[in-house]
């Protein structure tokens, strides 16, 4: 059985599959998207998409951390945002004394 190479024609000139799906969804739902009562849903969907993309590239979600701390550890104080991100970077790329001398790659 021969495996075919990945077909890059799908992504030529910015006309990828995802672009087409998004465009088709927007065009088919124009009346719903332009209605003011749905703007909050669109804003929430946009925030969730941003959160998903950030998690894909390894950027942790501070708001989810704060919500988790409030719900599961009400007796503990949550780290501030700067400390939280420093902790996540140190956990992902451990280095001696907190100094990153070279690329973790």
- What is the helix tally? 5
The helix content is: 55-70%
Q: Give Rg in angstroms.
A: 21 Å
Largest sheet: none
Helical/strand content category: mainly alpha
Number of domains: 2
The end-to-end span amounts to 35 Å
Organism: Acinetobacter sedimenti
Pfam families: Sel_put
Protein name: YbdD/YjiX family protein
InterPro entries: Sel_put
Provide a concise account of the structure shown.
The chain has helices at residues 17-28, 30-34, 39-56, 62-72, 81-92. It is mainly alpha-helical and 105 residues long. It has two domains: 9-57, no CATH class; 60-94, no CATH class.
Description:
It holds the Pfam family Sel_put. InterPro entries: Sel_put. This protein is an all-alpha fold and 105 residues long. The chain has 2 domains: 9-57, no CATH class; 60-94, no CATH class. 55% of the residues lie in helices and 0% in strands. It has 5 helices and no strands. The longest helix has 18 residues, at 39-56. It starts with 16 loop residues before the first helix and ends in a 13-residue tail after the last helix.
């Amino acid at each position: 059985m021969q495996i075919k190479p990945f077909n890059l024609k799908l992504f030529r000139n910015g006309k990828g599959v995802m672009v087409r799906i998004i465009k088709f969804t927007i065009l088919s739902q124009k009346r719903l998207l332009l209605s003011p009562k749905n703007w909050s849903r669109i804003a929430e969907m946009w925030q969730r998409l941003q959160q998903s993309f950030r998690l894909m590239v390894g950027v942790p979600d501070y708001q989810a951390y704060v919500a988790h701390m409030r719900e599961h550890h009400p007796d503990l104080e949550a780290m501030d945002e700067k400390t939280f991100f420093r902790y996540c970077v140190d956990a992902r790329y451990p280095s001696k004394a907190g100094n990153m001398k070279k690329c973790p790659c």
